[in-house]
Amino acid sequence: MTRALPLRGTARRRRGRRSALAIALAAGLVIAPQAAAQAADHQITVHPDRDGPAIADNMYGVFYEDINRAADGGLYAELVQNRSFEYAPVDNPDYAPLTAWQPASSGGSAEVVDDAGRLNERNRNYLRLTADGPRGYGIANTGYNTGFSLREGAEYDFSVWARTDQPAGTPLTAVLRDPSGAPLSRPLELAVRADGWAKYTGTLTATKTSTRGRLEVSATGPATLGLDMISLFPRDTFKDRPNGLRQDLAEKIAALNPGFLRFPGGCLVNTGSHEAYEAPNWERKRSYQWKDTIGPVEQRATNANFWGYNQSYGLGYFEYFQFAEDVGAMPLPVVPALVTGCGENQATDDPQLLRRHIQDTLDLIEFANGPVTSTWGAKRAEMGHPEPFGLTHLAVGNEENLPDEFMERFAQFRDAVEAEHPDITVISNSGPDDSGQVFDRAWELNRQHGVEMVDEHYYNDPAWFLANNHRYDGYDRNGPQVFLGEYASEDNKFRNSLAEAAYMTGLERNADVVKLASYAPLLSNVDYVQWSPDMIWFDNARSWGSTSYATQKLFMNNVGDRVVPSTATEDETLRQVVTRDEATGELIVKVVNAGSAPARTHLDVGTEVDPVARVTTLRGDPEAENTATQRPIRPVESTFEGAAAEFDHTFPAHSITFMRLRPAQS
After folding, report:
1. Domain Alpha-L-arabinofuranosidase C-terminal, which positions (predicted)?
2. Using CB atoms within 10 A of its CB, is residue 414 exposed (0-12), middle (13-18) or buried (19+)?
3. What is the spatial distance between Cα 319 and Cα 330, in angstroms, rounded to a whole number?
4. Beta strands in 374-494 (DSSP E)
5. Is the domain of 72 the same as that of 126?
């Protein structure tokens, strides 16, 4: 992600020239008069005997960033918020060590402490719970949003690290309840047996369906206990993985068929990277280090997120690599370059810190690809994955506003990586916008240094996307190549998706230059929105794709293997590209009609095709939005029975149409 929201009103509002017609079309306001409609016929001519650029198998992917509570309370399936009591009002006074916890009974007390009795050096805070007598005392966790989403009959894995001052042991009970205190499960009875930390586990089965569940943990006394890492995971996670991912969100991402997964974010990667690395992790502020995110979860650090909340790091680099593998995507991690963007605009002058981060990057490659006999490959194997993850691409930096300072450091990262791993593509970037002084200087330096791939980011209004369909037509074919790592039209209405789809036809037409592209951001929790628009929205029980999700899914599942050159009549409302599916021989004709009138079009495809074509269409009111309860924009499958070497077809107003034409059977 590019920068904190208050900055959106400045740099991101500076845009290129737009025609009045393009602006009106983007708003869905143009209604063509009858005379214009009669004259508004279109021609698309396809040249199947010519070869356009090949399209990379992984051209379209997803960009994941922990923004909008995308990890804890989102993709990471943990139901307990603040499970290790590490929340702190470092950057946000709304967070405190007992955030999301509340007393569940009388007859005792609970306080968060940091002393020599802690679980470990990284997980410093723990709960000291005192139960005065046999009535017991407990606390309850309220989770995220309205509470835990529980499904009748579903199993939930409970765990806690605990210790007691009672040599004979102390009974500990876990149970699910609703806000009134009524039980939503049978109680789970455990016995904490010693004054040393140990992990206790069990299973709770929901007896009712609820979206307002609570987890109550209580002890009977007299006793004083230490409790830490109080956790509740749904048994059903994506691919049934422990410490896994929320199933519905992961499945929606998998359904996109992403070619790559860029992680762990943008601003949170490079901001805070100036903090002294040798400082204890609990003293670093917003300093994201990949090594803090691996190993047993109870030994991982927590972090004060750039976006204003604490991250548990339960979803860490191992889980990112594993998720990429599970969905068939190329992993694409981003590491800090020690030049920050996102409103900070600082460059480190500490050569020792720079060397440390460069070594961290080399260690990351070894963690991903090294043999089990290597230091970091062994750590990967210890976590359950002895086989390499197959890392091929790595990005250094994110949207730096100091291009000269960035390039000086980027070159050192790239030289170090190429010396040990010449097969790794090291990706640079061009700052936070689509044009301007920083953009121009960054591209100048990237060319001078022979950079292989440059990451571009921009968020613009629909008119910009409609007017800039030919943006990449004039890019140098000799490089560098483009990774369009973040882009979106600035709303989640269908008019925004129409503009994005029109723009994507230009990305595909220039697939020899634009090698990778990802809409951003990927995820947003409706109760923790820090950036909008977003591709997938969710609360604690439901998830739904925006109209841009429907658009991205259509493109990502119908890419094709090679562009087939085609031409169309010049028009401000119609955009098209044609690709070929080499496995089936089909021509995939992709047409976006952003206008308010149907587009009567004559297609000359230059070869005989089967008369029955498969058609997928997205269409609707340009002001329509997909919500938790309404999905007005969704794909409609149909057939068209008039296909031939030449034929007419009308593309509906405000529509995205994919037509698959099979070769004629001899």
Report:
1. 485-655
2. buried
3. 14
4. 393-396, 425-429, 453-460, 481-489
5. no
Of 465, 527, 468, which Cα lies nearest the Cα of 497?
465
DSSP output for 547-594: HHHHHHHHHHTS--SEEPPEEE---SSEEEEEEE-TTT--EEEEEEE-
439: which residues sit within 8 A by CB, 6+ positions away? Answer: 430, 431, 433
Q: 118 with 249, same domain?
A: no
Query: What beta strand segments (E) does 54-99 contain?
Result: 62-63
Amino acid at 628: A
Range of the domain at 405: 62-76+238-556
User: What single-letter DSSP state applies at residue 663?
Assistant: B
Assess whether 399 carries a catalytic annotation: yes
pLDDT digits (tens, 9 = 90+) for 320-335: 999 999 999 999 999 9
pLDDT digits (tens, 9 = 90+) for 11-47: 332 333 334 334 333 444 332 333 333 444 899 999 9
pLDDT tens sequence across 123-152: 889 999 999 988 889 999 999 999 999 999
33-85 tens-digit pLDDT: 333 334 448 999 999 999 999 999 999 999 999 999 999 999 999 999 999 99
Closest to 231 (Cα-Cα) out of 242, 240, 220, 223: 242
Domain co-membership, 230 together with 263: no
Closest to 337 in 3D by CA, of 247, 433, 404, 420: 404
**How many angstroms separate the CA atoms of 103 and 484, rounded?**
49
Distance, in Å, from the CA atom of 305 to the CA atom of 353, rounded to the nearest integer, reads: 21
**Residue where one domain finishes, among candidates 177, 208, 234:** 234
Chain segment 614-660, per-residue pLDDT in tens:
999 999 999 999 999 999 999 999 999 999 999 999 999 999 999 99
Q: Which two tokens stand for residue 408?
A: 């000086």
pTM, entire model: 0.93
Residues 559, 58: Cα–Cα separation, whole Å? 10
Tell me how far the alpha carbon of residue 101 is from its chain's centroid: 28
Q: Tell me, yes or no, whether 220 and 124 share the same domain.
A: yes
Catalytic residue among 65, 78, 399, 486: 399
- pLDDT tens-digit map of 408-442: 999 999 999 999 999 999 999 999 999 999 999 99
Instruction: Give 268-335 as a DSSP string.
Output: HHHTTTTS-TTS-GGG-SS---GGGG-S-GGGS--EE-TTSSEE--SS-HHHHHHHHHHTT-EEEEEE
Contact 192, 127 (CB under 8 A): no
3-state SS track over 344-367: CCCECCCHHHHHHHHHHHHHHHHH
